[in-house]
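User: For a benchmark we're assembling, each entry needs the component sequences followed by a predicted structure for the full assembly. Here are entry 17's components. Please fill in the structure.
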Amino acid sequence: MENLKDGTASKMFFFSAIFWFCVGTFMGFINGTKLAAPGFLADNPYLSFGHLRPVHVHIVIFGWISMAFAGAMCYITPALCNTRLWSEKLGVINVYLWNAGMVVLITCLALGMTSGREYSDMPWLVDLYAALLMVIPLGINVWMTIVHRKSKGLYVTVWFFATAIMMLAITFLIGQSPELFHLTGLNEAYLTWWHAHNILGLFITPVSAAIAYYTVPKATGNTLYSHRIGHLHFWSIAAFYSTPGAHHLMGAPIPEWSKSFASVSGVLVLVPAIAFCANLLLTMQGKWSMFVTNLPIKWTITGVLMAVPLNFQGGFQQTRAINWYIHGTHWIVAHAHLALLGFSTFVEVGAIYYALPKLLGRKLYSEGLGNIHFWLTLIGFIIYWTSMTTAGLIQGAGKIYEVAYIETVSATHPYMVARALGGFMVFLGQCLFLYNMYMTATAGEKTEEFNIANT
Amino acid sequence: MAREFRNFKRYRLGTVMVGVVFACSISLTIIAPTTQMQAVNEHPSEEALRKVTNYGTENGWRLDDPFLTGEAGAKEVREGFEIHGHKFSGGDPRVAKGKTIFIREGCWWCHTVMPEVTQDWQYFGAPPSTADFVFESPTVIGSDRKAPDLLHVGSRYEDMEDVLYMHFWKPQNVMEASIMPHFNYLWGDKDADGNPVDLSGDAPDPAPDSDVVALTAYILSLK
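Assistant: Structure for entry 17:
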């Protein structure tokens, strides 16, 4: 443990993340199959849909997305601060603690040990473990690296990393307050959804954006189009990304003014969103051919392009005029996957294709497999998203016109089959991803050994 | 240390501003609505009192019932309990256990327990009021509706335990196009007559202490 090479923690975080991505998408495929064929794996209580749905959600959020974030933070922060990671040892310990936490979390949820609150399903003991032993050590490492930096200024990416970990820790602990302090009634529901909204809005979205702010200029060699637009993005996230939390409860009897307030500030989320997309797409000027030829750029820019429909959906679907139609339908599930599997995942995979070969000191084993991975994931996702959005509109119509509920179930069934198919393609793509990266580590053509100067 | 301090100082204003902006932003959306809803907590509706008398203090994960068997909640209801100074007694312990099983089995991932304020009146019945949730934890209102809303299901299926048993045993027997998985494992090992439960046969009468009896009691208590 004493003589750890630079980049060890980052490398381990990335490989763990890819592994959990395979497991998480497999769980998604299983759940999709269950909705198409309800008897599938239903005999065992621990494999029942109600147990495996949160398992899928938590593996992709905490295992894949968050660990890929952690890997990117351990790689990008030192690179931008022109120094080494504050403690490689702490980083490696953090990887082990994180993976151990994943095993505990999956076991709990599969056994049905749940708090019964969406996105904060874990028992509060596991929540405290996640906050204190998974998130805070990562935060300390990132913050201390920034404090010990050798560069003068801080780049946009670093502002987001440093702030997002703090916001995550605060959001996460406030989100657990109903459990820790036994809050009851609609306050419990409200804080649960406030947490669910902000875990995405204050952690996943800004960190994904921060990673894209690094990958695109780095891979293209262009400077960021506008530092000032970066400021606009950053400050608008800090100021009003947390305010629309109540829009998840538009159908619930919470105070009416809070719904109106949430709706209006929800539309304001378009400010950071458009600032971000415009800034990165304009950074591509003169380098658009790389969108076809360069794997990291292909993934990252596809992710950024998916953020455009994502944010227009997000901004408008929560207004009263639209929400009454699509609330609680498959449309929302499609939207959630557009955010996590479309935008966030594509940006992270781009960063991994950029950073992991450098960390390993080897060339990517196969560009061809990387391209197959891209198309399987993209086409699989589009099949998934289109079928779920359509199913959501059918459910919405069924809800508004008050048709017998079972008719909606029958009408949406073909789309559940398509969803499982799309999910399988995504899963298959990630298996290729893991294989490609494993082969890169073991059989890739050797290049320069990783050091902080060649990030 | 000196360099580190200078490094921090250069961004002191930015760091302070992030703190101020974020603190203002989150307190606006946390303090105002929760204070308003806390005022409602002083005036629970009759429905809220009826519900919580049957539910106990907590139906999600708790230290004295880590595997969500529902026994801890049932014990509270049987013996009487207290929330924020209000005393409750005389509830149905099967309902407390049933609600915990409803949470453990993840029924709420498909069934909402809250007709929406904006529609649903005709089909699923009247939406609840804020005061109907006082003392309840967790509220399990659900978010992703892939199955009928259950808030008033007890009125639709009054005294129809047998239909619900058939439904839990194999939902497709009752509703052919249903995509609900079967829950025959909730019968446990022995049926009402003490015979081993045969999962390949028809639904036997469940033993009175089985999970399915508790879950059905909870479902029928939703009126």
